[in-house]
Write a sequence for this structure.
């Protein structure tokens, strides 16, 4: 609804909207064939409007009411640690943890499936025993959830289900409260800001002290995801309430696919959050590796891709003493010790339960995919059915880093390591081996890599802004979980729960970034949402721990492009002092919406206010990255950008441009030197991308780095030139 047309006879927006619904009820009174219209939510912060159950005739009546702007059908959303803080170098003696006091008193609102409040990750030991004055939220009672379950760590919990009930009028909710019955919200919220928990592990794997990225931040859960469904009305209501409650950061690991910005509840609510200085951190989606599969490609929020981490589990120990780190998550410390290692052509094909059953108790079977074209997953199925004492599988599949393997006492090793194992098995009369479970190895190289499942850009909602923004750890992340759900199985009939679970997805990457945002918000409370996002993007690293470009597990022979990883892996400590930032105002985003030729009502749906104007429509948003598209037939490109950077260093500074050219294209920067006289001074520069010559590469990428003469700062922006067919 148009806020400027708010009738002053009403005290609140709710009164106005309720009156509208009541008048429709009166108009349809006596019509027994129709369900009475029902008001579900009124929105006062994320947008000015309401959600309601209406017939098509009633909707048409609403469109004739004073102040009507637009109406959209409800939609379904898709939902997309002990070591990751070390992998991100947060445990250094100085840096972002210490500068922010571990995120003390920053409030993170998590929009998800609820929370398991009894988890050790949500205890309030060490937390300040008063809530921040800005906090206006509450702990809402419900089924198996009372107010005493909140504390000074989990300071708020609310739930929103009117939309899912309206979509399924006869539904009975299995858990009508903020309690988490799926585990997703418990996992993401503890990743953001879980407290310290000693001895956390997944059946002995990844054992250590679990903690969130911002362990002293406060948490508020807004449950909008239900076993019975997840709809836009509830998501918007949760985000609307989070803004009203006074959160500093919103973390949302879900999104809406194939929807324009003015119909996307996350886009609408995150605009209102951005206006109040609240950065929304969101997941890119799990539909990779296809390009253009990303959701939440919204220009005013942070979009996070998922990467692997430098950790693996389990080891194979040969009789000659050689130890090989492998991959297993068998959920028990099984004794598979000094058994014969069996390798021969008939047995090691591992493609017959009958053949394997004959040697099931004889030793450890080495299964070789080279002996049969059967997939390793089928080999595992045969081995499981044959009840082998132990098995070794061979694979270089990047999917091993994204999914748990562990129904049988087995381990996966790489093809390179397999060579020495096969050589040992063939050269010894009585080769033996052991499989060591519940062991954890860190420092594995190369890492990180772009996870194959992580959705890729360009953004379908608006491809002119490079998305995703950054990459964060998302594969096999250990965090709190619902202790009554299945987390592992032994064979097909033993089901096991766990207080902590290893999960993979951009849902796991998003809260890592949200936690860093919370730390940065504590260190720089005056920074805008755009400034914080800029600091994350320009300090991210495109290199893995071998100092080579990050690889793409969706395309194993290739380095990852910014369409997969954005600017690269998040680098928290560097965000504290980025040198330069690319800031943006709400009007800047409105200028972009105007350039998209959105109608006045479509823009008003997002902005909620007529105070913005379309005097300067522009696609050239002041963003810390660059993307241009070329025509597949002519390959013609001439794209010009203008950017303004703010010096947030300690004083005068001179920066010089260094460009890594995308293949087949020429990038020029002018001026090539930026000389700042004082802190917070703003200077502008231009970038031109031109076609150079034909090359076969479909996607070309490089970067622009502004390097300070003193060497104190390097401010990096990725550059992508892609075929228009990707959009």
């Amino acid at each position: 609804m148009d806020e400027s047309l708010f009738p002053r006879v009403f005290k609140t927006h709710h009164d106005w909207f309720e009156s509208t619904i009541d008048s429709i009820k009166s108009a349809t009174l006596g019509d027994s064939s129709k369900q009475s219209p029902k008001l579900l939510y009124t929105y006062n912060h994320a947008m000015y409007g309401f959600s309601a159950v209406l017939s098509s005739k009633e909707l048409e009546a609403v469109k004739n009411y004073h102040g009507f702007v637009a109406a959209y059908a409800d939609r379904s959303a898709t939902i997309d640690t002990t070591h990751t803080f070390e992998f991100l170098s947060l445990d250094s003696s100085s840096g972002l943890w210490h500068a922010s006091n571990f995120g003390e008193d920053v409030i993170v609102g998590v929009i998800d499936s609820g929370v398991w409040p009894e988890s050790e990750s949500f205890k309030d030991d060490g937390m300040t025993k008063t809530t921040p004055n800005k906090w206006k939220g509450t702990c809402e009672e419900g089924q198996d959830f009372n107010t005493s379950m909140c504390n000074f760590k989990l300071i708020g919990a609310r739930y929103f289900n009117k939309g899912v009930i309206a979509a399924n009028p006869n539904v009975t909710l299995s858990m009508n409260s903020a309690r988490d019955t799926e585990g997703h919200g418990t996992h993401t919220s503890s990743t953001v800001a879980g407290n310290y928990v000693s001895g956390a592990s997944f059946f002995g794997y990844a054992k250590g002290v679990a903690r969130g990225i911002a362990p002293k931040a406060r948490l508020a859960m807004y449950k909008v995801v239900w076993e019975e469904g997840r709809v836009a009305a509830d998501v918007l209501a949760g985000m609307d309430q989070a803004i009203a409650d006074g959160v500093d950061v919103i973390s949302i690991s879900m999104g809406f696919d194939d929807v324009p910005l003015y119909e996307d509840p996350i886009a609408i609510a995150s605009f209102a959050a951005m206006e109040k200085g609240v950065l929304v951190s969101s997941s890119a989606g799990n539909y990779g590796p296809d390009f253009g599969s990303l959701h939440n490609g919204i220009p005013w929020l942070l979009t996070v891709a998922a990467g692997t981490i430098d950790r693996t589990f389990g080891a194979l120990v040969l009789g000659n003493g050689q130890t090989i780190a492998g991959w297993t998550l068998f959920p028990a410390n099984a004794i598979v010790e000094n058994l014969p290692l069996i390798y021969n052509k008939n047995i090691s094909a591992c493609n017959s339960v009958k053949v394997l059953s004959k040697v099931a108790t004889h030793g450890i079977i080495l299964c070789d995919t080279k002996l049969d074209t059967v997939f390793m997953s089928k080999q595992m199925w045969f081995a499981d059915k044959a009840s082998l004492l132990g098995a070794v599988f061979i694979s270089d599949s990047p999917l091993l880093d994204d999914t748990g393997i562990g129904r049988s006492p087995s381990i996966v090793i790489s093809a390179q390591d397999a060579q020495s194992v096969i050589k040992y098995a063939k050269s010894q009369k009585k080769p033996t081996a052991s499989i060591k479970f519940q062991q954890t190895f860190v420092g594995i190289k190369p890492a990180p890599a772009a996870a194959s499942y992580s959705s890729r850009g360009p953004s379908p909602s608006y491809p002119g802004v490079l998305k995703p923004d950054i990459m964060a750890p998302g594969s096999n992340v250990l965090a709190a979980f619902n202790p009554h759900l299945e987390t592992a199985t032994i064979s097909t009939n033993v089901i096991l729960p766990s207080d902590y679970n290893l999960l993979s997805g951009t849902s796991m990457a998003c809260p890592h970034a949200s936690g860093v945002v919370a730390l940065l918000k504590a260190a720089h409370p005056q920074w805008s949402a755009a400034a914080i996002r800029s600091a994350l993007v320009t300090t991210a690293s495109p290199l893995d721990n071998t100092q080579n470009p990050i690889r793409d597990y969706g395309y194993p022979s290739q380095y990852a492009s910014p369409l997969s990883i954005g600017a690269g892996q998040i680098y928290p400590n560097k965000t504290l002092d980025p040198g330069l930032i690319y800031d943006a105002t709400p009007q800047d985003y409105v200028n972009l919406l105007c350039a998209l030729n959105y109608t006045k009502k479509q823009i008003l749906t997002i902005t909620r206010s007529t105070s913005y104007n379309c005097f300067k429509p522009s696609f050239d948003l002041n963003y810390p990255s660059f993307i241009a598209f070329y025509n597949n037939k002519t390959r013609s490109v001439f794209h010009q950008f203008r950017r303004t950077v703010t010096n947030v260093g300690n004083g005068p500074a001179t920066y010089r441009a260094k460009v890594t050219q995308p293949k087949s294209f020429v990038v020029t920067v002018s001026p090539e030197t930026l000389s700042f006289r004082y802190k917070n001074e703003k200077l502008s520069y231009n970038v031109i991308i031109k076609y150079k010559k034909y090359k076969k590469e479909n996607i070309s990428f490089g970067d622009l780095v502004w390097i300070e003469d003193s060497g104190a700062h390097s401010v990096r922006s990725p550059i992508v030139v892609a075929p228009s067919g990707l959009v």
